[in-house]
Amino acid sequence: MTARQAPGSHNLLQERYEHAAATLRQALLDGQPWEALEPVRRQVTELEIALDHDDAPRRPLRLRRLPGPTP
Hints:
Blueprint: H1 9-29, H2 38-55
């Protein structure tokens, strides 16, 4: 947990992820078309990324200069 994070926010993210994943799973088992579940699939993906990011070790952002166009 980072200093910017509210206490218990990881648990809230985990609960939301589990609920969204269960909703997606049940909808797929019920035969809903994959395309129709795009909002739920997106929510599951975003929550999974947030959970992964929440657990990731913090390291400073390092920017590097990209090569310019060749003359």
